[in-house]
Structures are given as C-alpha cells and as structure tokens.
Amino acid sequence: MKEKVVLAYSGGLDTTALIPWLKETFDYDVVCCCVNCGQGNELDGLEERAKMSGASKLYIEDIVDEFCDDFIMPCVEAGAVYEHSYLLGTSMARPVIAKKLVEIARKEGAVAICHGATGKGNDQIRFELGIKALAPDIKIIAPWRMTDLWTMQSREDEIEFCKAHGITLPFDASHSYSRDRNLWHISHEGLELEDPSQAPNYDDMLVLSVTPEKAPDKETEITMTFEQGVPKTLNGKAMKVSEIITELNKLGGENGIGIVDIVENRVVGMKSRGVYETPGGTILMAAHDQLEELILDRETMEAKKKLGSQFAQVVYEGKWYTPLREAIQAFVESTQKYVTGEVKLKLYKGNIIKNGTTSPYSLYNESLASFTTGDMYDHHDADGFITLFGLPLKVRAMKLAEVKNNQNQN
C-alpha cells in the first residue's frame, strides 16, 4: 500500500493543484481534510472537486462551535488585537485546524501532513508550529518552500497546471483574490492590494459587507447580555456563541461595520497589505469592551491591556500551544469573573455607538461620580486614604453584598 499524506484542503486554487502534484512527486495516497470553521458556501462542491483532482478521500470536519468557544472567545476576552486593527481571524483558526489535521493523520496512519501556505506568509509558521507541538513525529510538506520540486510561481501557473490535469476551477486569475474565510472574518490579499497606493476595489471584493456609504440611512439597535465574559443572548434570544456571531455578521455586514485596510508586519519580516471584513467580531469585541469599562478596576484594566497585546502577538505568531498562551489566558479568565451584564449598541454606517450598559457588578457609583452630590474628599472616615484610593474594592464589596441579598430573596 502507498504511504498516505493528509492535505489541509480548502478547495481553493493552491490546495486543489497540490493533489495531483503530491501524487506525481511523492506517489502518495492523498487524503484531503477540510476543517469547517464557518466558511459557508465555500464548502459547496468540495468533495466532487477533491475526488476529481485525484484525492482518495475527503474529510469535512465541522469544528465551528469548538472554534468559537475555545479559540475565538479567549481572544475576545483578552481584547487581543494585532497592530491596533487586526482581529486575528486567520490566526485564531490555524491552531484548531492543525489540531484536527493531526487527529485525521493519526486516524489514517499518515506519514505526512501537507499545507499550501506560501513561503512568504505567516500561515506556514502557524500550521507547522501547531502540528509539531501536537505531533513532532509527523513529516510536514510545504511545497511553496520546495523550489526544486514545486516549480509553479504564480496563480496563473497553478491554473494552467490544473487545466492540464483535467481539473475544472470555479475561478480565474483576474478575479481571484487570495482569501481566507471562517465564521469570524474573511481576508483579502492580492491584485490591486499589492500596491499600497491603490484604493481597494470594494465593489469587486467585499463578501460579508457593504461599504458604509451603501449602508442604510437608519440606525440598527442591538442588545446583548454576557455572563462571565461570554455572550449569552442577542436581542433577547438565548444563543450559542457561534449563532450570535452569525447573526452579528449579518447585522454588521448590512451596516458597513468592521472593514479594515491594513499594512501589517508579518512574522517572516516583511510587510503585507490586506483587507479584512470582520463585521460580527468587531461588534462583539466592542460590546465586551463596553461592559468591561464598568467592571474592571484601573490596575487590572491596565495589566489586561498589556497582556492582551502580548496575547495577540502570541496568537499571530502561531504560538497557541505554548505555556505563555496558557498563562496569559489564565490571567484573562480570572478577570472575567464579574464581566456580566447587558450592553446596548446602535450600528450606523460603519459606526458602533454606545446605547447604554448595565451590570450588577458595576464599579460605577453615581452618588460618588455626580457633580451635584458633594466632593468625595468630604467623607469623614478615619481611614480616609483607604476609602478614597481603595474605592473600587469598597464598591465591589457593596455590589457583591447587594447581589447576594437579591439572590437570597429570590
């Protein structure tokens, strides 16, 4: 029997071309694995394309809820944003994809895992660090770095290669951005985006969204509730995290929310430009931040911002399966104990507008903050210094006592 290779298969141009290439170059039995992180209609026709291209088998593994609960939410709770703008949509998905690729490789007895990530990008690092952390014995094949064997240098070359092997593709080079999509976002690279002096062709590019100019001329109001940092309801309806993100994507996309054009610093040392659509994720992170404003004390907030930035760096660099990620996440989880409450927002032409926030654990005290109720220095307390500078702790204790009393009464 031939040795097996598990191919991380998206159905796109790169990974479709890899199927006949792997068979011809290594005489492998190619087992494709598509990990469904919420790609939507990109999964349509995938099995037919994989088999037509020469794969012996295709796994489509649905891990949407695991992706949302175990990978997206830790980043939301951490406030993890890379270089002020990027909400880590691709970065968060790679470790869970690597995990599933390893599981399938073990199940199939494969000797190797192959990915189609470019030799200039971040994903090669993310995939390979994840795979090696979980299965150091499995060989990794990275064709774009194997320049002696992989001779194709462009998307046009790959399209011609596929045509020569009788593979019909649903796209062409002239309208083919390099894209990555999951439930959290969709990224776009290539074509005019490779020239930073050129404006993005949004009419040809956008998938989840409209531009703010094309959004409705009226506001969309939403209400969300959170329990210990995790969203539980949207507009009064209890939903799973994946369902909330799906609905927020619809609402955010309709209102032009979360379109980012960024030149970012890749791990490999070069700058790259991309456009990200993250409508639902942008709303969810804004809502979570809005609630935390009421609840976290100043010192914790400052520490969390620093560690959140470091968490984003760790995730962006593909270091999910590391002690540092686990340690930062443990800190973040400890800060979410009281992040419970209701957030109201209005969406309008690309803007997210606060519309009110409440929490039983709010540290905001109207009687202290009001300009009409006297000065906080007027407190006649033998421990006046502690009363003033330990105020968050005192207010927290009062709030907890109030909540416990209400619970006992109910």
In short:
This protein has 410 residues and is an alpha/beta fold. 42% of the residues lie in helices and 19% in strands. It has helices at residues 13-26, 46-52, 64-78, 89-108, 123-134, 155-164, 202-205, 241-254, 279-295, 298-316, 323-335, 366-369, 384-389, 391-409, and strands at residues 4-8, 29-36, 57-62, 112-114, 139-141, 178-181, 186-189, 220-227, 230-234, 237-238, 259-265, 271-277, 341-348, 351-358.
**CA(first)-CA(last) distance:** 67 Å
pLDDT averaged over residues: 92
Strand order of the largest sheet: 3-2-1-4-5
Give the count of helical stretches: 14
Low-confidence stretches: none
What's the oligomerization state? Answer: single chain
N-to-C series of helices and strands: EHEHEHHEHEHEEHEEEHEEHHHEEHHH
* Helicity, as a percent range: 40-55%
Largest sheet: 5 strands, parallel
Question: How much is the radius of gyration in Å?
Answer: 24 Å
Instruction: Please report which band the strand proportion falls in: under 5%, 5-15%, 15-25%, 25-35%, 35-45% or over 45%.
Output: 15-25%
The total of beta strands comes to: 14
Apparent shape? elongated
Structural class: alpha/beta
Family: Belongs to the argininosuccinate synthase family. Type 1 subfamily.
Binding site for ATP: 8-16, 116
Binding site for L-citrulline: 86, 91, 122, 126, 178, 187, 264, 276
Catalytic activity: L-citrulline + L-aspartate + ATP = 2-(N(omega)-L-arginino)succinate + AMP + diphosphate + H(+)
